[in-house]
Design brief:
The complex is a heterodimer. By secondary structure, chain A is mainly β. Helices cover about 5% and strands about 55% of the residues of chain A. Chain A starts with a helix and ends with a strand. Classes of the chains: A mainly beta, B mainly alpha.
Chain lengths: ~500, ~425
């Protein structure tokens, strides 16, 4: 915003295309424990306000070469009125036994606020200034700063960006975009010796660059690099209790440092392929790789095969990077049939293969672990199968016309840890362009094999009615009722209001 | 004798049967070939080589959304008019196309164009005079015309295409009509089937946004109408909703697209942004209202099963040490829950399986190996350090992988903070990493 406003001023007198949107959801529900007590009572209000101005340069309509500039802002208010003060206020009388550090931080956040320019310098230059998202092989990420891109005539586009990672505990920010593994937030009002695992939020300087292909539509690739630093104080004493001053580490250090590449290619009468890989420099290993192949059998049938390799990775400050997290390997087959212009059916089956330790450690050998001297070999039974696997499948079907959509979604997953099987049938119909009626009914059965007492069958339904004021404005009332043996009956009432100026 | 009699009867009956069969056939009207009512006579299927470039075999025609259904109420034979005998060219009737800069322009010829050959007079459209010959009669071209209708004929209705298109710019570059419309000169009536296919546009439109590559850019808003919802292009029309074709980035929005859209977005998120605003993505990826398209009803109760199996899908939308941990702490299922709420043992198996020796399947070590993210959704580092720290209760149940010491110098140099959580700065073990 701060970057954007001064730049906006010169264009304020020009004609532009403004837009104002508002999305509000009020939710009312209770979460109950298996024994029936209400453990969480939610009275939540979420409102998002969007302010945008497009075509700030008033480009001639239909001119593909004209520079274009727009401003986009979205604010969010997300308040949980069900939280007692003992949970949110460290000075409350019962806070010692109920306070949850970090809870209720970030009531108001700026989801994004940026000024975007495209096709300047005869199409070469593009930019974004402000809080913005970056979506690529490295995931869904947000930062405050600037991005500049150069689009060359040689089918290559280069991009550099830098700024501060959006982090929870900072003003008008959420923690959604930080690397995982660190419990972070605003420690204001907390004694340094209390909740030492709750790390004080600090600035996260970030920089990145990307090169991607452009223009050609049948093949595309993007190579992307991003580094985020951690700064400021960090508690490293886990058991300081006020008797001992907690040890603090302070220094510029790596938060995350990754290189990613994603591509796709398609041959319109044959099929296509996609692939991607992420290398984590901090962990010095590939943490994600995937590939898929689609084969077009005629005009209506697509057969596909997928593979996905994944190893969890965390913020550089997190000790979880040092724990043995083995990769998962997902392999699957899927198919889609476009039965008609209105009806499509898609289904697939996959296996998830886990790697786990299967051999004893032999000093100097190639065993996967190096247990310390207090590690009792005799007390360890190693599984004979190092690659246990889960299996699953799904079947989705959708029939839709301009006013009606009916969808079926069924899925099943079965593995050593548990299983989940069920399906939903949903429908929505718009009467006379204004009146919306929708419903959903589902049955799901699940079983937790590590906790055999926690298995249940859920029967649920949703009924909603609404009125559509315009193409993008509507009010809805949504009622959800879930029934299962563990918590009995659960209800959720939602009131939704969406408004847009056009 | 009997055989001879039977043969005689058959000999007499045969001519009668023949007459009964042949005479009605001869009297029946020979099948009439209908011309000018479809691209090919008698509405035969148009072979691929005559269709616009980019058509498939079999072809379902161009997009209904881009080119809404038309009502063509005239009979016309392009092949006949473009034949040498008549000598017309595309420009003879569609001269306006060579000057048109907008897809909204009407490019059909006026009736007066026909007058010279058909002896008609369309000068005053309110008082059209038919010609003397058969081909000058109103009904010769205007379908459904009856003399009692007088001057009234059914209107040709061709809705404006939901597209940007500059005919002049293309014509000026010597891009001939067949390059977009196919071999109309070999067809009779031109219908929607002779309108361009998007795949055909990409034969030329493969250029980037930058200068010096001409105008054949592949950006969506080069051809598609500008969106009025803050998106690059407009997707909602009275004729339907635009959706990408299967062959473009393999991104057909099939019923299971939500399961695989990440591969499209990871490669080219600006492609998605042509139709979807950031809000569309944030509703799920940074949302505060559970999207039922992702999580079914009562997911709150059953989400633990999915978390047990593997949580990489969860982490695409949720940060575990804030979204998950916050809630788990508050409802008391986390080790770090406030003491007033803590109700341990609601997720893990009994201690004899979960943490006591011997380690066997179901032990937390193996569960962590296969799905460490699930641990992170409930546990803070203190919970682990209690046993895995160099000092403390467990006094060093080493969590590092084999060979860790060989590469730990780089990790220590880049970020020593996690090392110090378990190892004091004076810990001699750290010396192995320096």
């Amino acid at each position: 915003m701060a970057f954007g406003l001064p730049l906006l001023t010169p264009f304020a007198a020009r004609a532009m295309d403004p837009e104002l949107t508002s999305d509000t959801a009020a939710q009312f529900y209770d979460v109950r424990s298996p024994t029936g007590e209400t453990t969480l009572s939610r009275r939540r209000l979420t409102t998002m306000l969007g302010l945008s101005a497009y075509d700030l340069l008033k480009a001639p309509p239909g001119d593909p070469k004209a520079p274009d500039m727009s401003l986009r802002v979205r604010l969010r208010y997300d308040a949980d009125f069900g939280a007692p003060s003992s949970v949110t206020d460290p000075s409350a009388p019962t806070a010692a036994t109920s306070f949850v550090p970090g809870f209720s931080q970030g009531l108001v956040d700026v989801m994004y606020a940026y000024l975007e320019g495209r096709r300047f310098l005869k199409g070469w230059l593009g930019f974004r200034l402000g809080r913005q998202y970056v979506v690529d092989a490295l995931g869904w990420w947000s930062f405050d700063g600037g991005e500049v891109s150069l689009t060359t005539p040689y089918f290559v586009k280069a991009e550099v960006y830098g700024g501060l990672e959006q982090r929870g505990g900072m003003p008008l920010s959420t923690s959604r975009f930080e690397a995982d593994g660190i419990w972070t937030g605003n420690r204001q009002g907390l004694d340094r010796s209390l909740y030492t695992s709750f790390q004080p939020v600090s600035l996260g300087p970030a920089l990145g660059a990307a090169i991607e292909s452009t223009g050609v539509t049948w093949i595309h690739g993007r190579l992307t690099y991003r580094r985020v630093y951690n700064t400021g104080d960090s508690n490293v004493s886990e058991y300081a209790s006020g008797v001992v001053t907690p040890a603090i580490y302070n220094g510029l250090r790596i938060g995350s440092d990754r290189l990613g590449y994603a591509m796709d290619a398609s041959w319109s009468s044959v099929g296509g392929a996609k692939g991607g890989i992420v290398y984590d420099f901090y962990r010095s290993e590939v943490t994600h790789a995937y590939g898929s192949i689609d084969a077009y059998l005629g005009q209506k049938v697509t057969l596909s095969a997928d593979y996905d390799y994944y190893v969890p990775s965390y913020d550089g400050d997190s000790i979880f990077n040092f724990f043995a997290g083995e990769p998962t390997n997902d392999a699957g087959l899927r198919a889609n049939v476009d039965v008609s212009r209105n009806l499509s059916i898609a289904g697939g089956a996959q296996v998830r293969i886990f790697d786990v330790q299967t051999a004893q450690f032999a000093p100097g050998g190639a065993g996967p672990y190096s247990p310390s001297s207090n590690y009792s070999m005799a007390a360890t039974y190693f599984p004979t199968n190092g690659h246990p696997f889960d299996k699953g499948g799904y079947l989705h079907a959708r029939w839709r016309t301009g006013e009606t959509q009916i969808a079926l979604r069924g899925a099943g997953d079965v593995g050593d840890e548990g299983q989940r099987v069920g399906g939903d049938l949903s429908a929505e119909h718009v009467f006379e362009t204004h009146y919306v009626v929708s419903g959903r009914a589902g049955v799901w059965q699940w079983q937790d094999l590590l906790r055999p007492d926690r298995d249940a069958t859920t029967v649920n339904y949703v009924a909603a009615v609404g009125y559509r004021f315009g193409p993008r404005s509507q009010a809805m009332v949504d009622w959800e009722h879930d029934i299962n043996r563990l918590v009995g009956q659960r209800f959720r009432l939602m009131l939704l209001l969406t408004l847009a100026t056009k | 004798m009997t055989t001879l009699r039977s043969f005689s009867r058959a000999f007499v009956l045969l001519p009668i049967v023949a007459v009964l069969l042949v005479v009605p056939m001869a009297l029946a009207e020979a099948p009439r070939t209908l011309h000018g009512l479809a691209p090919l006579a008698n509405d035969q299927e148009v072979p691929l080589k005559l269709l616009p470039p980019g058509a498939f075999d079999p072809d379902e025609g161009p997009s209904d959304v881009i080119f809404p259904p038309q009502q063509i109420t005239v009979r016309f034979n392009h092949a006949k008019h473009l034949a040498k005998m008549v000598g017309a060219t595309c420009k003879t009737c569609h001269g306006a196309a060579y000057r048109s800069a907008s897809a909204a322009d009407t490019l059909l010829p006026k009736g007066a164009v026909c007058d010279a050959c058909h002896s008609t007079d369309h000068e005053d459209i309110a008082k059209v005079k038919p010609g003397d010959e058969d081909m000058g009669q109103c009904a010769f071209c205007h379908l459904g015309y009856k003399a009692k209708d007088g001057n009234a004929v059914a209107q040709v209705q061709i809705p404006r295409p939901n597209l940007l298109f500059n005919h002049k710019a293309h014509a000026d570059r010597n891009i001939g009509c067949p390059q977009c419309h196919g071999a109309v000169d070999e067809l009779e009536l031109a219908t929607r089937d002779q309108l361009p296919r998007m795949r055909g546009c990409f034969h030329c439109h493969q250029m980037s946004d930058a200068a010096s590559q001409g105008d054949a850019k592949s950006e969506c808003d080069t051809c598609h109408l500008k969106g009025d919802q803050g998106t690059g292009i407009k997707t909602m029309f009275a004729s339907g909703t635009l959706s990408p074709p299967r062959w473009l980035h393999n991104s057909e929005h099939t019923p299971d697209f939500i399961e695989r859209h990440k591969t499209v977005a990871a490669d080219d998120s600006t492609y998605c942004a042509n139709c979807h605003k950031s809000d569309f993505c944030t509703d799920c990826h940074d949302g505060r209202v559970r999207p039922r398209s992702v999580h079914p009803s009562d997911y709150l109760n059953m989400h633990a099963i999915e978390a047990r199996m593997a949580t990489q899908k969860c982490t695409s939308c949720h940060r575990e040490q804030s979204f998950c941990l916050d809630c788990h702490m508050r409802v008391g299922v986390s080790e770090s829950s406030p003491t007033a709420d803590r109700d341990s043992g609601r997720f893990h198996p009994p201690k004899s399986v979960w943490s006591d020796p011997p380690r066997k399947p179901g032990h937390h070590a193996f569960e962590a190996e296969r799905n460490l993210n699930a641990c992170v959704s409930c546990h803070i580092e203190r919970d682990c350090v209690a046993c895995h720290g160099a000092q403390g209760i467990g006094a060093g149940f080493d969590p590092h992988q084999n060979g860790f010491v060989g590469g730990c110098a780089m990790e220590l140099r880049r970020n020593p903070r996690p090392c110090f959580v378990c190892h004091e700065k004076t810990d001699p073990v750290l010396g192995k990493c320096q």
